[in-house]
Amino acid sequence: GEKKKKEGEISLDPPSGTRDFFPEEMRQQRWLFDKFREVATSYNFQEYDAPVLEKVELYERKAGEEITEQMYNFTDKEGAKVTLRPEMTPSLARMVLQLMRSETGDIAATLPLKWYSIPQCWRFETTQRGRKREHYQWNMDMVGVQGIVAEAELLSAVVAFFESVGITSKEVGLKVNSRKVLGAVLEKAGVPGEKFAETCVIIDKLDKIGAEAVEKELTQKVGLAAEVGRRIVQATTAKTLDEFAELAGVGESDEVQEMRKLFELAEDYGIADWLQFDASVVRGLAYYTGVVFEGFDKAGVLRAICGGGRYDRLLSLYGSKKEVPCVGFGFGDCVIIELLKEKKVLPEFPATVDYVVAAYNEEMLGKAMRVARLLRQAGKSVDVLPEVAKKVKKAFKYADRVGAERIAFVAPDEWDIGLVRIKDLRSDIAEDLKQQDVPIGDLANIDRYFSKGQVAKAEAAAGEAATS
Fold first, then answer.
1. Which 3 state secondary structure label does DSSP give 405?
2. Which of 32, 260, 301, 353 has its CA 20 to 30 A from that of 242?
């Protein structure tokens, strides 16, 4: 909570539900984002971005979703109604529509579009473990693929990410369902098409409010008969596709066959052990139309880790002349970090630097800066000790504190004969080989002096000298 402050004092805490990123946390964030980017680019997805500020109208859907009630929205100084984006998909839809030819509705780009992004998203909600009011969310979306191959590809990308950070299918699973199958059930139960999205949003609350409350909302808000509401809720308890098809009375419909195909593709892809059918997963966003999925912690400690699905009608809501097939997922940074901590696979991120350059006295300070510049030009990260290091111990202490790999001493004796003394602080090479006097003009090739070949040569020479 915010520390009590005297009148006139500024609170040092960030606003409720938000975070400061100190350098160590920033290193952790960079590591995580690099993992997101590596996976996305390995699937040939292109990175994009959009303003964090969006028009409120992008999110004004009428299906009673939580997201529309959780916006950080306001009227700006020009009278425009804007909000900090609560999610990225509508921004993506807006951008894709800019590529659409208005006369024909065709997209003026090579399909499929395979885009990814790591936006910061904002929702004014109750904060809890793994959930803040702002978070960064890795999104991967495919636009223009009608078949189930797109879902298989995205599920595989999610698995690839988990594997890259040391999480296995014993710890995390992906629950998969299809709103198309649910749609067939609802149609059979007499739910009118325009009530479908709203019904899904209510069913999504099963975990939060329980079966009885969901049945009540289906009766009161959607106007379903109590018996129909009960049957729908009962069907969502199915743990296998066969059981669901039977409970729902939809048999081997096209929708059920499409789901079977997805599980077959997952088997061939080598990710079947991560997937499980779960009829209760419908996701809380109104625009999903087909397969939906979410990652979950098998230990049951954390809430949904990621989620996504197919949303073929979202672009039509924004004025597209044609239905454009889209599928994507969102993956928040807070909950994955909590998961990695929970499973004890989160690495440490100590500060590191390639070189500390230390000047022996005031006269050598400018020379030390020259050495630092030459090392940086050779692609090294360099920290110049900001004061003279007449006492070598002081320089070593500083180098240790900043995590330096090597230290360069710039002192008159070596400098006068064109050399810089460099000591390796981390390698496990023999003590007498850790220190090298390197010509100033050859600092661009510094690694040669500490390479295995060079060390081996020096060791061989030392051996010969000892035996002669």
1. strand
2. 301
